[in-house]
Design goal:
Elements: H1 2-9, H2 14-29, H3 32-35, E1 38-41, H4 46-52, H5 56-68, E2 71-72, E3 77-79, H6 91-101, E4 102-104, E5 115-123, H7 127-138, E6 143-151
Parallel strand pairs: 1-2, 1-5, 5-6
Antiparallel strand pairs: 3-4
Helix pairs in contact: 2-5, 6-7
Length: 155
């Protein structure tokens, strides 16, 4: 977990690069890398990205795209500004929260019939990835595969 906090808060991208290599191997072994047409990520709000200097889920997706040679597109999904941190919410609250803050961008690229590989940094309940996957499917994606480099344990 220390590596995730360093990635999020201390601009330590070595972990993201290392994780992308490991994850790339897993995605190849499971046949997902061969099916994915586009890699994208769960979006961070632009004000938070400006403050932090980057979006860690996007960095993970980028390094994995480089590892696998898959096209990247980070202009598919958007996020409204919000103040709630996901880790402070219950599972039920996470689902409602995710439904309220993520949306498909109106000027997104045509992804009809494409297989999308969607990245997040940490998987907890699946609410964020489920909501974002649903949006991508509604935009025409054929399949959405999800990946994260860490998971948490719920109480």
């Amino acid at each position: 977990m220390k590596a995730i906090h360093q990635l999020k808060d201390d601009r330590q991208l070595n972990f993201a690069e290392y994780s992308a290599k490991l994850l790339g191997n897993v995605l190849r072994e499971n046949g997902i890398a061969q099916q994915a047409d586009i890699i994208t990520s769960v979006p961070m709000h632009k004000s938070k990205r400006r403050k932090r200097g980057y979006d860690q889920a996007q960095k993970l997706a980028h390094f994995t795209a480089m590892e696998l040679g898959i096209k990247e597109n980070y202009r598919l999904l958007g996020r409204t500004r919000d103040t709630a941190e996901q880790h402070t919410l219950t599972a039920a609250q996470r689902k409602t929260h995710a439904e309220e803050i993520y949306f498909s961008l109106p000027d997104h690229a045509d992804i009809k019939g494409k297989n999308i590989l969607l990245f997040d940094d940490v998987y907890t309940t699946g609410s964020t990835l489920n909501v974002c996957s649903g949006l991508l499917k509604n935009m025409g994606a054929k399949k959405v595969f999800c990946a994260a480099i860490a998971t948490t344990l719920l109480d």
